[in-house]
């Protein structure tokens, strides 16, 4: 079911092979403060999938607010989220040239273009 006025986002990043188990473990119990920051930023239906042959993490989410850039800035300023990123960024390798970590001017995760969507309703 589609949420009215939502923006769908898909992002990718590489997971270091040595960090697979730790990454899965930490995401099995995401810190409540991190989840609260996402909720305040109007992020819903957020998931991260892993594709081992390419060591690829694929994140999908919906944004239901009206100021995506502003809300993402608030997430980046959240102290609990900054601590979370200090742990998780070290497990990842960005595809973005010049990226140094989450929440910076240069994006850490690569946003990918949506080329098809079917929401179960024919035209």
Automatic annotation (TrEMBL):
- Superkingdom, according to UniProt? Eukaryota
Q: One GO molecular-function annotation for this sequence?
A: racemase and epimerase activity, acting on carbohydrates and derivatives
Pfam families for the chain: rhaM
Q: Which Gene3D superfamilies match?
A: 3.30.70.100
Q: Which InterPro entries match?
A: Dimeric_a/b-barrel, Rham/fucose_mutarotase
Kindly give the PANTHER family that the UniProt entry links to this protein.
L-RHAMNOSE MUTAROTASE
What is the recorded name of this protein?
Rhamnose mutarotase
């Amino acid at each position: 079911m589609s949420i009215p006025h939502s923006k769908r986002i898909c992002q990718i990043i590489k997971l270091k092979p040595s960090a697979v188990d730790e990454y899965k473990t930490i995401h099995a119990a995401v810190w409540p403060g991190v989840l609260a920051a996402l909720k305040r930023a109007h992020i819903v239906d957020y998931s991260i999938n892993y594709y081992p042959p390419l060591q690829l993490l694929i994140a999908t989410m919906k944004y239901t607010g009206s100021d995506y850039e502003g809300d993402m800035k608030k997430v980046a300023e959240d102290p609990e989220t900054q601590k979370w990123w200090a742990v998780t960024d070290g497990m990842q390798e960005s595809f973005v040239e010049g990226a140094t970590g989450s929440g910076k001017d240069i994006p850490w995760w690569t946003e990918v273009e949506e080329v098809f969507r079917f929401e179960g309703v024919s035209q």
